[in-house]
Design brief:
Shape: globular
Number of strands: 11
Largest sheet: 7 strands, mixed
Strand content: 15-25%
Low-confidence stretches: none
CATH class of the largest domain: Alpha Beta
Helix content: 25-40%
CATH topology of the largest domain: Rossmann fold
Bound molecules: S-adenosylmethionine
Number of domains: 2
Radius of gyration: 19 Å
CATH architecture of the largest domain: 3-Layer(aba) Sandwich
Order of helices and strands: EHHEEEHHEHEHHEHEHHEEE
Mean pLDDT: 94
Structural class: alpha/beta
Length: 261
C-alpha cells in the first residue's frame, strides 16, 4: 500500500518526532501538516495518508475516503456474546482451551487474535504482511486502554504479539508442532454483504488467499488444528481444501478446520 505520513493538526514535538521515525521506517514521504487538509494531501501525492494522532496511534485515510484505525469493536461484541453464552464460532472451530497457543497468520486489526488470547490466556503471535496495517495494529494494541465491559479483557491486549511478514515465509521458519492452532483469515472472496469494519481493508490490505504450499507448512507447524475463516461456499472452489471439515456459524462466515494429530 502506498502512503505518505503526516500528523494531526497542531502537532506536538512528540507527534512530529513519531511521524519522522515512522516515515523513515516505512521509507515514505513525510508531509508537514500545517493548514493542509487530508484531502489536499491526498490530491497532491495521489496516495493514502497515514496520520499520527495526538495519542500517537495512527489513522489511515484511504484514497477512496475510508478510515482505518485500531478499534476492538468486533472483538467486544464477540467477547460479550461469548461471556454470555460460553460459545464462539472461531473458538469452537479451534477447539481452543486455556493454555493452548495460537499462531494467527492474518493479524489484520487483531480482533480474532484478541479473542484467541482471551480464551487461551497465552501469547498469540500474529503475522501481518502489510507494513502500514502492522504499524496501526501494533500501536493500537500497545496504547488501547479497555474501558467498561471490555476491562475483563485487558490482559488479552498484552498477549497479542504482532510480527511483520508473509505468513508462508514465517511458517517456513517455525519448527514442527510449535503451536497448538494455526489460524488463517484471508480477505473474503467476493463478499456479498457490506461490513463497515472490513470495507477499508478491502481497499488497502494484502489479498493473498491460502495456497496449498502455505497449508502444508501450517499443518507441519500445528500440533492440533489448522483453521481457516472463509465466506460460505468458498471450500468448493478450492480442491486442496477437500479434507477440511466445515463449521458453520450464524452468519455468512464458515470456519474450515483439520485435525493434524
Ligand atoms: C481479513 S484481514 C484479517 C482480519 C483479522 N483476522 C482480524 O481479526 O482483524 C486479512 C489480513 O491478512 C493480511 N495478509 C494477507 N496476506 C497475507 C500474508 N501472505 N501474510 C500475512 N498477512 C497477510 C492482510 O493485509 C490483512 O490485514
Amino acid at each position: 500500500m502506498e502512503v505518505v505520513v503526516t500528523t494531526d493538526r497542531k502537532p506536538t514535538p512528540e507527534m512530529v518526532a513519531e511521524a519522522e521515525k515512522l516515515a523513515e521506517k516505512l521509507g515514505v514521504p513525510l508531509v508537514k501538516r500545517r493548514h493542509n487538509t487530508i484531502n489536499a494531501i491526498k490530491k497532491r501525492f495521489g496516495k493514502n495518508v497515514l496520520v499520527v494522532n495526538g495519542d500517537l496511534t495512527l489513522t489511515l485515510h484511504t484514497l477512496k475516503g475510508q478510515k482505518l484505525f485500531f478499534h476492538p469493536g468486533l472483538f467486544k461484541i464477540r467477547l460479550l456474546n461469548y461471556l454470555a453464552g460460553g460459545k464462539e464460532a472461531m473458538i469452537e472451530a479451534m477447539a481452543l482451551k486455556e493454555g493452548e497457543t495460537v499462531l494467527d497468520c492474518n493479524l489484520g486489526l487483531a480482533q480474532d487474535a484478541l479473542m484467541a488470547a482471551f480464551v487461551s490466556k497465552r501469547e498469540v503471535v500474529g503475522v501481518e504482511k502489510d507494513p502500514v496495517i502492522y504499524e496501526i495494529v501494533k500501536r493500537g494494541l500497545e496504547r488501547y486502554r479497555p474501558e467498561g465491559k471490555l476491562k475483563v479483557a485487558d490482559f488479552a491486549f498484552k498477549l497479542v504479539k504482532p510480527v511483520l511478514g508473509d505468513n508462508y515465509e514465517f511458517l517456513k521458519s517455525q519448527p514442527d508442532n510449535s503451536y497448538d492452532v494455526v489460524y488463517f483469515s484471508p480477505m473474503f472472496i467476493k463478499p456479498k454483504w457490506h461490513c463497515s469494519v472490513m470495507s477499508p481493508f478491502r481497499e488497502v490490505a494484502v489479498k493473498d488467499f491460502v495456497s496449498p504450499e502455505t497449508l502444508k507448512e501450517a499443518e507441519r507447524v500445528a500440533r492440533k488444528r489448522v483453521v481457516i475463516k472463509v465466506n460460505r461456499g468458498v471450500k468448493e472452489l478450492f480442491p486442496f481444501l477437500e479434507d477440511y471439515e466445515v463449521q458453520g456459524s450464524s452468519t455468512n462466515v464458515e470456519y474450515l478446520y483439520k485435525e493434524v494429530k
